[in-house]
Amino acid sequence: MQRPLTIALVVDSLSNFSNGTANSAYQLARELTDRGNTVRLIGVGAPDAQYRAREQQIPVATWFAHRQQTCFARPSAALFRRAFKDADIIHIYEPFSFGRHARDYALSHGIPVTAGFHIQPENIMYSLGACRFIPGLSSAIYTGLNHYFYKKIRHIHVPTQMEADFLQRRHYRNALYVISNGYQPDFSPGYDAGDSIGAEEDTDTDTAYSPGFAQSPCTGKKFVIAAAGRLNREKDHITLIRAIGKCRHNKDIELRIAGTGPLYKHLMSECRKQLANTASVGFRKHSEMPQFFREADLMVHPSIADIEGVSVLEGMACGLVPVIAGSRLSAAGNFALTGNSLFPAGDSETLAQRIDWWIEHPEDRRIWGRKYAEYACRHYNIARCARDFELMERAAIKDARENGPRQHA
C-alpha cells in the first residue's frame, strides 16, 4: 500500500465560493483528504490562517478580477516556507504572479511541482471588450502563458480533451493529464429510497424522480429552466433570455439563473422585455445548488467558452436534461447525449425550438434525465477524479526523484 501524500494546493483566491476554481480546489482537497492524504490550501481566504496570502493590488487587472469574483494573491517567501514545509508535492491552479513565485520557490527547494490549466485564454479575451477581436490574440495568450509559467512544469492537469488538443496544437510539450474537475456527491437526483443511480440491479425507470411539470403539466405549474454561471459575455445568458421570448410556451416558463457578474442589470432589463414571467437571477450558495437543480425541469447552458462546464455536470447529476451551446471554444457540448440537447452557440431561434420540444415531450425528458444522471455518475464523480489526480501527483513525484524536480517541458 502506498503511503499518503502531503499535497499543497496553491490558489490565488479561496475566499469567494461563487468562484468555480475555488470550489473545485475545496472539493478536491476534501476528497484527497478522505483518501488519507494531507492537503494544504494556500491563497487569499485559505481556511487555515497560517496559509493565508494577502491580496495583491494590480492596476486595472484587480478591477477586472473583482468583476469575475476573484482576486490576485501576493507572493511571499515566508508563506511558501510555512506552507511547503515537508510537502511531497505542490500543485498550482493559476499561472499568475502568485503561482509563478510558488513554482520557483518549490523548484529551488527541490519540491516537485504540478499545475492545472484552468484559465481559458478566451475567458480573458471576453473581459477585454472589443479588444478580444484583435487578430492572433488567443494564440499570443497561449504562447505567453507557456513562456511565463507552464514550460518549467512537466505534469499538467487539463479538465478536458478539448483543451489538451488546444495546448498540443500550440506546442505545449508537457505531459497532459485529462482529468475532469468532477462534481460532489451532494449533486444527485431526488430518487426514492432504495433507487440508486449506478446500482447494477437498478433497471426500473418508473420509480425515478421527475420534476413536477413532467408529472402534472397543469396550467398553474410553471416550467422551470435553470442556468448557472457568471453573468458575463462568454456565458451568453442573453441568448437564453431571447430564446425563451421566442418560445411558444413563453407564458408557461420560469427562468432561474444562479450567478453574479457585471451584466446583471443588462440581463434583468432584457428579462423584463422578453419574458412573460418574472425571472430569478442572483447568487446562490454552493450548498444550495443541488436543490436549485432538482427544482428545475430543464437546464440550459448557453456558454460560448468553457474549458469544462462543471455546472452542466452538476445539473446532469441531479437528473436534469441539459440543452448546451455547441461551440468550438466550449467542451460542455461533449456532454450532450442526444441531438435535442445541443444548439448552435448564439442561435436563439434553434434554442427556442429545443426548449419547446422538451416541454412538449415530458416522457422523453424523464427518460433522458435518468440517462444523464447515470452518465455523470459513471464518468465524472469526484471520487474517480481525485483518484486520477493523485495518480498524476505520484507520477510527478517519481519523475522528480528520477530526473530532478526542475522539470523543463
Order of helices and strands: EHEHHEHEHHEHEHEHEHEHEHEEHHH
Q: Would you report the number of β strands?
A: 12
Rg over C-alpha atoms, rounded to the nearest angstrom: 22 Å
Number of helices: 15
Q: In what range is the share of β-strand residues?
A: 5-15%
Helical content stands at: 25-40%
Average pLDDT, to the nearest integer?
89
The poorly predicted ranges are 192-219
Helical/strand content category: alpha/beta
Main β-sheet: number of strands, strand sense, barrel status?
A: 6 strands, parallel
End-to-end span in angstroms? 31 Å
Q: How would you sum up the global shape? A: globular
The side-by-side strand order for the widest beta sheet comes to 2-1-3-4-5-6
General description of the model:
This protein is α/β, with parallel strands linked by helices and 409 residues long. 40% of the residues lie in helices and 14% in strands. It has 15 helices and twelve strands. The strands form two sheets. Strands 2-1-3-4-5-6 form a six-stranded parallel beta sheet, with helices on both faces. A six-stranded parallel beta sheet has the order 9-8-7-10-11-12. Helix 7 links the parallel strand 5 and strand 6. The protein is globular and about 65 Å long.
